[in-house]
Write a structure and sequence with these properties.
The protein is of the alpha+beta class. Helix content is 62%, strand content 10%.
Length: 287
Amino acid sequence: MSVIANSAVLVRLNISVWGASKRNKDLENEVARGKNADPKAMRMYDNLMVGSTGHKDVQKHAANVRLWHTNMTLPWDERGYRLCPTSLFLDYKSQHNLKKAAFDSMLDTFRVKYFSYRETARQYRGDMFNENDYPPVEEVMSKFAWNFVVAPVPESGHLCIDLPEQEMQELRQSCDEEVERKVAEAAKENEKRLLKELQGISAKCTDTGDDDEDDKKRWHDTFVTNPIDLCRMLKHMNLSNDPKVEEARQRLEDVMAGKTKEMFKDSPTIRQEVKDEVDSIITSYDW
Protein backbone atom coordinates (compact mmCIF):
# COMPACT_ATOMS: atom_id res chain seq x y z
CA MET A 1 0.00 0.00 0.00
CA SER A 2 3.06 2.26 -0.04
CA VAL A 3 2.15 3.36 -3.58
CA ILE A 4 -1.21 4.74 -2.45
CA ALA A 5 0.30 6.15 0.73
CA ASN A 6 2.82 8.09 -1.33
CA SER A 7 0.37 9.21 -4.03
CA ALA A 8 -2.48 10.53 -1.86
CA VAL A 9 -3.32 12.09 1.50
CA LEU A 10 -6.51 12.17 3.52
CA VAL A 11 -8.31 15.48 4.00
CA ARG A 12 -11.35 16.36 6.09
CA LEU A 13 -13.24 19.64 5.83
CA ASN A 14 -16.19 20.52 8.07
CA ILE A 15 -17.93 23.88 7.75
CA SER A 16 -20.67 24.96 10.15
CA VAL A 17 -23.01 27.91 9.66
CA TRP A 18 -25.56 29.37 12.07
CA GLY A 19 -29.03 28.34 10.92
CA ALA A 20 -30.63 31.77 11.47
CA SER A 21 -34.05 30.16 11.80
CA LYS A 22 -36.46 29.43 14.64
CA ARG A 23 -39.49 27.20 14.74
CA ASN A 24 -42.70 29.18 15.18
CA LYS A 25 -45.16 26.96 17.06
CA ASP A 26 -47.58 29.85 17.62
CA LEU A 27 -47.92 30.34 13.87
CA GLU A 28 -48.29 26.60 13.36
CA ASN A 29 -51.21 26.53 15.80
CA GLU A 30 -52.79 29.61 14.21
CA VAL A 31 -52.60 28.19 10.70
CA ALA A 32 -53.79 24.78 11.88
CA ARG A 33 -56.91 26.30 13.46
CA GLY A 34 -57.69 28.20 10.27
CA LYS A 35 -57.30 25.04 8.18
CA ASN A 36 -59.02 22.69 10.63
CA ALA A 37 -55.79 20.71 10.88
CA ASP A 38 -53.56 19.26 13.57
CA PRO A 39 -50.49 21.46 14.27
CA LYS A 40 -48.38 18.30 14.09
CA ALA A 41 -49.08 18.22 10.36
CA MET A 42 -46.74 21.15 9.67
CA ARG A 43 -43.47 22.76 10.58
CA MET A 44 -43.04 26.51 10.20
CA TYR A 45 -39.78 28.37 10.71
CA ASP A 46 -39.00 32.08 10.93
CA ASN A 47 -36.12 33.44 8.85
CA LEU A 48 -34.29 35.52 11.44
CA MET A 49 -32.12 37.24 8.82
CA VAL A 50 -34.88 38.09 6.35
CA GLY A 51 -34.33 41.27 4.35
CA SER A 52 -30.53 41.14 4.15
CA THR A 53 -28.03 39.04 2.22
CA GLY A 54 -25.12 38.79 4.68
CA HIS A 55 -26.11 35.45 6.19
CA LYS A 56 -27.27 34.02 2.88
CA ASP A 57 -23.91 34.89 1.33
CA VAL A 58 -22.10 32.93 4.04
CA GLN A 59 -24.43 29.95 3.56
CA LYS A 60 -23.95 30.02 -0.21
CA HIS A 61 -20.17 30.25 0.10
CA ALA A 62 -20.08 27.33 2.53
CA ALA A 63 -22.26 25.20 0.22
CA ASN A 64 -20.05 25.99 -2.78
CA VAL A 65 -16.90 25.11 -0.83
CA ARG A 66 -18.38 21.78 0.29
CA LEU A 67 -19.19 20.96 -3.35
CA TRP A 68 -15.70 22.01 -4.47
CA HIS A 69 -14.15 19.84 -1.73
CA THR A 70 -16.20 16.85 -2.88
CA ASN A 71 -15.21 17.34 -6.52
CA MET A 72 -11.51 17.67 -5.68
CA THR A 73 -11.41 14.48 -3.60
CA LEU A 74 -12.61 10.88 -3.49
CA PRO A 75 -14.62 9.19 -0.70
CA TRP A 76 -12.66 7.37 2.00
CA ASP A 77 -14.47 6.69 5.29
CA GLU A 78 -17.54 7.44 7.40
CA ARG A 79 -15.60 9.90 9.58
CA GLY A 80 -15.54 12.43 6.75
CA TYR A 81 -12.01 11.88 5.49
CA ARG A 82 -11.60 11.97 1.72
CA LEU A 83 -8.73 10.98 -0.54
CA CYS A 84 -6.78 13.76 -2.27
CA PRO A 85 -4.02 12.86 -4.78
CA THR A 86 -0.69 14.39 -3.84
CA SER A 87 -0.38 15.70 -7.40
CA LEU A 88 -3.47 17.82 -6.71
CA PHE A 89 -2.78 18.69 -3.10
CA LEU A 90 -0.82 21.91 -3.62
CA ASP A 91 -3.57 23.25 -5.87
CA TYR A 92 -6.22 22.01 -3.43
CA LYS A 93 -4.49 23.64 -0.45
CA SER A 94 -3.97 26.93 -2.31
CA GLN A 95 -7.64 27.10 -3.25
CA HIS A 96 -8.62 26.03 0.26
CA ASN A 97 -6.66 28.92 1.78
CA LEU A 98 -8.36 31.44 -0.52
CA LYS A 99 -11.81 30.06 0.26
CA LYS A 100 -11.07 30.05 3.99
CA ALA A 101 -9.92 33.69 3.80
CA ALA A 102 -13.13 34.63 1.99
CA PHE A 103 -15.16 32.81 4.67
CA ASP A 104 -13.35 34.66 7.46
CA SER A 105 -13.88 37.99 5.71
CA MET A 106 -17.60 37.31 5.39
CA LEU A 107 -17.78 36.46 9.09
CA ASP A 108 -16.02 39.69 10.02
CA THR A 109 -18.62 41.61 8.01
CA PHE A 110 -21.45 39.59 9.54
CA ARG A 111 -20.19 40.26 13.06
CA VAL A 112 -20.09 44.01 12.45
CA LYS A 113 -23.50 44.15 10.76
CA TYR A 114 -25.35 41.61 12.92
CA PHE A 115 -27.44 44.19 14.78
CA SER A 116 -28.15 46.05 11.55
CA TYR A 117 -29.38 42.79 10.02
CA ARG A 118 -31.56 42.24 13.08
CA GLU A 119 -33.17 45.67 12.69
CA THR A 120 -33.83 44.98 9.02
CA ALA A 121 -35.51 41.71 9.99
CA ARG A 122 -37.66 43.61 12.49
CA GLN A 123 -39.20 45.55 9.60
CA TYR A 124 -39.93 42.39 7.61
CA ARG A 125 -41.19 40.19 10.45
CA GLY A 126 -43.72 42.66 11.80
CA ASP A 127 -45.66 41.29 14.77
CA MET A 128 -43.70 38.03 14.56
CA PHE A 129 -40.50 39.82 15.57
CA ASN A 130 -39.19 38.89 18.99
CA GLU A 131 -35.87 40.28 20.14
CA ASN A 132 -35.36 37.19 22.31
CA ASP A 133 -35.03 35.14 19.11
CA TYR A 134 -31.66 36.79 18.51
CA PRO A 135 -28.76 35.50 20.64
CA PRO A 136 -25.84 37.76 21.61
CA VAL A 137 -23.46 38.28 18.73
CA GLU A 138 -20.66 36.22 20.31
CA GLU A 139 -23.00 33.29 20.78
CA VAL A 140 -24.08 33.55 17.15
CA MET A 141 -20.48 33.72 15.91
CA SER A 142 -19.63 30.57 17.87
CA LYS A 143 -22.06 28.70 15.60
CA PHE A 144 -19.79 29.29 12.60
CA ALA A 145 -16.77 27.01 12.21
CA TRP A 146 -14.23 25.86 9.63
CA ASN A 147 -12.29 22.74 10.53
CA PHE A 148 -9.67 21.35 8.16
CA VAL A 149 -7.50 18.29 8.82
CA VAL A 150 -4.83 16.54 6.73
CA ALA A 151 -3.70 13.00 7.55
CA PRO A 152 -1.58 10.32 5.85
CA VAL A 153 -3.10 7.24 4.29
CA PRO A 154 -2.57 4.48 6.89
CA GLU A 155 0.19 1.95 6.24
CA SER A 156 0.57 -1.39 7.94
CA GLY A 157 4.33 -0.88 8.16
CA HIS A 158 3.74 1.97 10.61
CA LEU A 159 2.08 -0.26 13.21
CA CYS A 160 4.10 -0.14 16.43
CA ILE A 161 2.40 -2.58 18.78
CA ASP A 162 4.05 -5.12 21.04
CA LEU A 163 2.44 -8.34 19.77
CA PRO A 164 3.76 -11.77 18.79
CA GLU A 165 4.95 -11.88 15.15
CA GLN A 166 2.06 -14.02 13.90
CA GLU A 167 -0.54 -11.65 15.35
CA MET A 168 1.36 -8.68 13.92
CA GLN A 169 1.34 -10.24 10.46
CA GLU A 170 -2.40 -10.82 10.70
CA LEU A 171 -2.93 -7.23 11.86
CA ARG A 172 -0.83 -5.84 9.02
CA GLN A 173 -2.69 -7.98 6.50
CA SER A 174 -6.02 -6.78 7.89
CA CYS A 175 -4.87 -3.15 7.66
CA ASP A 176 -3.68 -3.60 4.07
CA GLU A 177 -6.92 -5.30 3.04
CA GLU A 178 -8.98 -2.48 4.55
CA VAL A 179 -6.97 0.17 2.71
CA GLU A 180 -7.27 -1.80 -0.52
CA ARG A 181 -11.04 -2.00 -0.05
CA LYS A 182 -11.31 1.74 0.51
CA VAL A 183 -9.11 2.53 -2.48
CA ALA A 184 -11.29 0.28 -4.66
CA GLU A 185 -14.43 2.05 -3.43
CA ALA A 186 -12.85 5.44 -4.09
CA ALA A 187 -11.94 4.32 -7.60
CA LYS A 188 -15.59 3.55 -8.32
CA GLU A 189 -16.33 7.25 -7.80
CA ASN A 190 -14.24 8.00 -10.90
CA GLU A 191 -16.46 5.72 -12.97
CA LYS A 192 -19.62 7.29 -11.55
CA ARG A 193 -18.48 10.82 -12.32
CA LEU A 194 -17.38 9.91 -15.82
CA LEU A 195 -20.55 7.97 -16.65
CA LYS A 196 -22.78 10.74 -15.29
CA GLU A 197 -20.99 13.30 -17.50
CA LEU A 198 -21.28 11.09 -20.57
CA GLN A 199 -24.98 10.45 -19.99
CA GLY A 200 -25.61 14.17 -19.50
CA ILE A 201 -23.89 15.05 -22.77
CA SER A 202 -25.82 12.36 -24.63
CA ALA A 203 -29.16 13.55 -23.25
CA LYS A 204 -28.45 17.20 -24.05
CA CYS A 205 -27.37 16.38 -27.61
CA THR A 206 -30.48 14.31 -28.31
CA ASP A 207 -32.65 16.30 -30.72
CA THR A 208 -36.42 15.98 -30.51
CA GLY A 209 -36.96 16.33 -34.26
CA ASP A 210 -38.82 19.57 -33.68
CA ASP A 211 -36.53 22.31 -35.00
CA ASP A 212 -38.30 25.04 -33.06
CA GLU A 213 -38.13 23.06 -29.84
CA ASP A 214 -34.46 22.16 -30.33
CA ASP A 215 -33.60 25.78 -31.07
CA LYS A 216 -35.01 26.76 -27.67
CA LYS A 217 -32.44 24.67 -25.82
CA ARG A 218 -30.15 26.78 -23.67
CA TRP A 219 -26.44 26.12 -24.04
CA HIS A 220 -23.81 27.30 -21.59
CA ASP A 221 -20.02 27.37 -21.64
CA THR A 222 -20.04 24.84 -18.79
CA PHE A 223 -21.45 22.22 -21.18
CA VAL A 224 -17.96 22.16 -22.72
CA THR A 225 -15.78 23.23 -19.79
CA ASN A 226 -17.23 20.80 -17.23
CA PRO A 227 -16.30 17.60 -19.11
CA ILE A 228 -12.88 19.04 -20.02
CA ASP A 229 -12.28 19.91 -16.36
CA LEU A 230 -13.40 16.42 -15.31
CA CYS A 231 -11.01 14.81 -17.78
CA ARG A 232 -8.12 16.85 -16.42
CA MET A 233 -9.10 15.96 -12.86
CA LEU A 234 -9.30 12.25 -13.64
CA LYS A 235 -5.63 12.29 -14.68
CA HIS A 236 -4.91 12.82 -10.98
CA MET A 237 -7.84 10.90 -9.50
CA ASN A 238 -7.15 7.59 -11.23
CA LEU A 239 -4.93 6.38 -8.39
CA SER A 240 -5.46 2.72 -9.23
CA ASN A 241 -4.43 3.36 -12.87
CA ASP A 242 -7.66 1.81 -14.13
CA PRO A 243 -7.16 1.44 -17.91
CA LYS A 244 -10.90 1.71 -18.56
CA VAL A 245 -11.14 5.07 -16.82
CA GLU A 246 -8.05 6.38 -18.59
CA GLU A 247 -9.22 5.25 -22.02
CA ALA A 248 -12.75 6.59 -21.58
CA ARG A 249 -11.37 9.83 -20.16
CA GLN A 250 -9.08 10.28 -23.16
CA ARG A 251 -11.89 9.56 -25.61
CA LEU A 252 -14.18 12.09 -23.95
CA GLU A 253 -11.40 14.69 -23.90
CA ASP A 254 -10.81 14.15 -27.62
CA VAL A 255 -14.52 14.49 -28.38
CA MET A 256 -14.91 17.79 -26.54
CA ALA A 257 -11.57 19.32 -27.57
CA GLY A 258 -12.04 22.43 -29.68
CA LYS A 259 -15.80 22.53 -29.19
CA THR A 260 -17.76 25.62 -28.13
CA LYS A 261 -21.30 26.11 -26.92
CA GLU A 262 -22.07 27.97 -30.17
CA MET A 263 -21.15 24.87 -32.18
CA PHE A 264 -23.64 22.77 -30.23
CA LYS A 265 -26.29 25.46 -30.42
CA ASP A 266 -26.02 26.07 -34.16
CA SER A 267 -25.15 22.67 -35.59
CA PRO A 268 -27.42 19.60 -35.39
CA THR A 269 -24.60 17.71 -37.13
CA ILE A 270 -22.15 18.46 -34.32
CA ARG A 271 -24.72 17.45 -31.72
CA GLN A 272 -25.35 14.14 -33.47
CA GLU A 273 -21.64 13.40 -33.94
CA VAL A 274 -20.89 14.07 -30.28
CA LYS A 275 -23.91 12.07 -29.14
CA ASP A 276 -22.85 9.09 -31.26
CA GLU A 277 -19.33 9.21 -29.84
CA VAL A 278 -20.32 9.52 -26.18
CA ASP A 279 -22.92 6.77 -26.62
CA SER A 280 -20.15 4.62 -28.04
CA ILE A 281 -18.00 5.34 -24.99
CA ILE A 282 -20.89 4.43 -22.68
CA THR A 283 -21.57 1.11 -24.41
CA SER A 284 -17.88 0.18 -24.76
CA TYR A 285 -17.36 -0.50 -21.07
CA ASP A 286 -18.91 -2.43 -18.22
CA TRP A 287 -19.70 0.37 -15.78
